[in-house]
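PROTEIN DESIGN WORKSHEET
SECTION A - STRUCTURE
LENGTH: 166
TOKENS:
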């Protein structure tokens, strides 16, 4: 590839991953890749014997109804990973690092939010290169996901303040 700029074309360079910006294939490839990432969050190929029990299980309101297990959620380039213990979040993070490493993706440890009911017992979650880690935050930490201000303490103060503004 080469880049056209004011002084002409740059020297040629090889692309290591991805598609060129504006390529019509980009959304299709993104959907395929993110599907594979989320499928691995649900049924992790690194830990096939235990990963089917990972996730957050929502118990039904009605007796006898089936429960629902949620492992991850994604919309466009936003993702959320859910777990109810340290082992499953560490396992899922191992999958994320392996997946990103295999596809030459970078994992930003500054932008993501790592929310825990008890940050002192949170596992260490390193970047793909192992040079930085995610910082665990407590249940009162509010984050923005798909435009909503959420936290695991279910405190809606920040979201109500935004909605109340005119």
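SECTION B - SEQUENCE
RESIDUE ASSIGNMENT:
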């Amino acid at each position: 590839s080469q880049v056209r700029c004011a002084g002409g074309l740059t020297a040629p360079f090889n692309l290591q991953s991805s598609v060129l910006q504006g390529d019509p294939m980009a959304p299709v490839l993104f959907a395929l890749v993110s599907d594979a990432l989320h499928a691995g969050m649900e049924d992790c190929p690194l830990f096939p014997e235990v990963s089917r029990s990972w996730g957050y299980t929502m118990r039904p309101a009605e007796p006898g109804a089936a429960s629902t297990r949620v492992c991850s959620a994604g919309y466009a380039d936003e993702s959320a990973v859910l777990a109810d213990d340290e082992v499953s979040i560490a396992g899922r993070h191992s999958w994320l690092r392996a997946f990103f490493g295999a596809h030459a993706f970078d994992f930003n440890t500054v932008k993501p939010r790592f929310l825990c009911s008890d940050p002192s017992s949170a596992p260490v979650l390193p970047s793909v290169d192992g040079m930085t880690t995610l910082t665990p935050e407590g249940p009162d930490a509010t984050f923005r996901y798909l435009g909503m201000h959420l936290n695991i303490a279910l405190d809606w103060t920040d979201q109500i303040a935004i909605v109340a503004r005119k």
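SECTION C - NOTES
DSSP finds three helices and ten strands in the chain.
The radius of gyration is 19 Å.
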